[in-house]
Design goal:
This protein is of the alpha/beta class. It has helices at about 10-15, 25-40, 75-85, 100-105, 115-120; strands at about 5-10, 45, 60-65, 90-95, 110.
Length: about 120
Amino acid sequence: MPARLIVDGNNVMGSRPDGWWRDRAGAARRLVEQIGAWATDDVLVVFDGRAPGDFPRPDHVEVRFAERGGRDAADDVIAGLVAADAAPATLRVVTSDAGLARRVREHGAEVTGARGFLDAL
């Protein structure tokens, strides 16, 4: 996995109450496009749910959707990626989910808050 920045997509979308829940697929597309416009290095964004059709794939952004449904599906994907990485201390995970933050910090990854990241975009 070349990306050293992993984004908890649903958590970042949920960090600002801008009505994203009325159109989750649209909010996910907008977030990926924002990250694509911002990114100069590779970023991995992980979402819960199924991939909507015609999803953007900007340069430097890899998008994954949790293969299983249910609570914490994307969190489990992110935690698994961090745990399996050869150098987890070089990873930064964007999330404000306390449980996920604890899980990735246990492997040495750095955590950045979702709202601050979204504001920086």
